[in-house]
Amino acid sequence: MLGGLQKIGKALMLPIAVLPAAGLLNRLGADDVFNVPFIHSGGAALFTFLSLLFAIGISIGLSKDNSGAAGLNGAIVFLILNFGVIGVNSSINMGVFAGFIAGLVAPILYNYLYDKKIFGNQEFFDGKHVAIIINAILALLLVLVFGIAWPTIQGWLDAINGWITSAGAFGASVFGILNRALIPTGLHHVLNTYLWFGYGDFVDAAGQMVHGDINRFFAGDPTAGTFQVGFFPIMMFGLPGAAFAMYLASKKKNRPEVGGMMLSLAITAFLTGITEPIEFTFMFIAPFLYGIHAILTGVSMFVTNLLGIKLGFTFSAGAIDFGLNFTKGHNAWQLIPIGLIFALIYFVLFYFIIKKFDLKTPGREDETEESLAMEMPNASVQTASAALGATEADLPENGKVDKYEQMARGYLGGLGGEDNLVKIDNCTTRLRLQVKDADMLNEAALKKSGARGVVKINKENVQIIVGADVEFVADKMRDMTGK
């Protein structure tokens, strides 16, 4: 089940990746920025048709060949489902859930048929085309099921809405804690989907009904931002404060290397809101610290909502989104002093706990466990490759490998070799890998190759936390293995 949910979480990243573009167009074209209506309308259109983007993106993400044909399957199922249920019950509005369901269902048949030759060598009626036709027919069954069942499901969702609304700042706090708690498994994307893209209703200026905390914020709903605003103090200030604490707590001889790494991670978190690279430097080494981090995230969600602050984001709660959306928020300036307070809290707690309990955060490892990753940048190719288990025969003719190829070779060695690797996927910061036997992993070798964390979901699904370079590393691994 975790393996399946992991795949769904990864698939969700494809349509979610559209949001920064949507937010940029929406804000830059707004009347309080550059006042260019056609740019603003273009961004608003992406939010309006987010359900369709979910259907296409999730279908591609869950398909075995990541083909555009899989996306077309998802789009067709979505259109039939979304508008078909209205014919059953005109009051039904499934919103983003229609796209989510279509994206989950359409790849099932597609993955079975996509490589089949149903009618010999006739290309037009190959498996991909047949899957489209059959999915269109089977989508009618979804229309009947959800046309009858959705009013009941909607009643349950409305009850959840009612609890969340009545819980106010406390409900936002619970969401913040759960959001961080699920980071190790990558399932936080699944949790986010409902609140960010399905929760709440708002009619925008054009008369369109929009759903979800993110969509409603950009449509001008003054109550939106509840489940976003509390992340800004943590991502822009709190975790950079933790990074500074880990730098000062490291051994003096290791501080130059640790400082360079922590500075890059802190700047990434501050500007973009991508925090996983920092979180995975202490998540498994010090689970107690990570528990404190999750609780502090909940506290930030509680405080910001209690004060009535409102602000939203397109991708994550970094300075870029803060600057772009500042004028749409309410009392957003208060996030800066609140953030500075959280930076101080994180710094003091992390520094004290790391020193008090001698936690082996970066730069504090025992001499026998010193990370090769800190020495690798200045090592020769032959030395590095030998340390990672590569032979001279594995090296290019010129004897040189670039940074990403070097990391890819190291990861392949740490994964138990190419024969143990089944499939390579990635999201924003992680390699999401399917292996034959997770027990064959050498976590020490993976970390020496630059991994900031290793997560074993089960015997066949693992994750390697890489950081912002993950896509380049994944591409190198695919080139090397063909997987």
Characterize the structure shown.
- It is built from 20 helices and six strands.
- It is mainly alpha-helical and 483 residues long.
- It has three domains: 2-219, no CATH class; 231-356, no CATH class; 372-481, Glucose permease domain IIB (Gyrase A, domain 2), CATH 3.30.1360.60.
- A hairpin with a 4-residue loop joins strand 5 (453-456) and strand 6.
- The longest helix is centred in the N-terminal third of the chain and has 41 residues, at 127-167.
- The two termini are 23 Å apart.
- 47% of the residues are buried.
- The active site is at residue 427.
- It is found in: Cell membrane.
- Residues 405-483 form the PTS EIIB type-1 domain.
- Residues 1-366 form the PTS EIIC type-1 domain.
- It comes from Listeria floridensis FSL S10-1187.
Main features:
mainly alpha, single chain, 20 helices, Gyrase A, domain 2, about 60% helix, 3 domains, 4-stranded antiparallel β-sheet, about 475 residues
Provide a short characterization of the protein structure:
The chain is mostly helical. The protein is built from 20 helices and six strands. α11 runs antiparallel to α12 (255-272).
The parts where pLDDT drops under 50 for at least 5 residues are 368-395
By DSSP (H or I, 4+ residues per run), the number of helices equals 20
Largest sheet data: 4 strands, antiparallel
Instruction: Domain count, please report it.
Output: 3
Overall spatial form: globular
Summarize model confidence as the mean pLDDT: 85
Q: Whole-number radius of gyration?
A: 24 Å
- What percent of residues adopt helix (DSSP H or I)? 55-70%
Number of strands: 6
User: What is the string of SSEs from the N terminus onward?
Assistant: HHHHHHHHHEEHHHHHHHHHEEHEEH
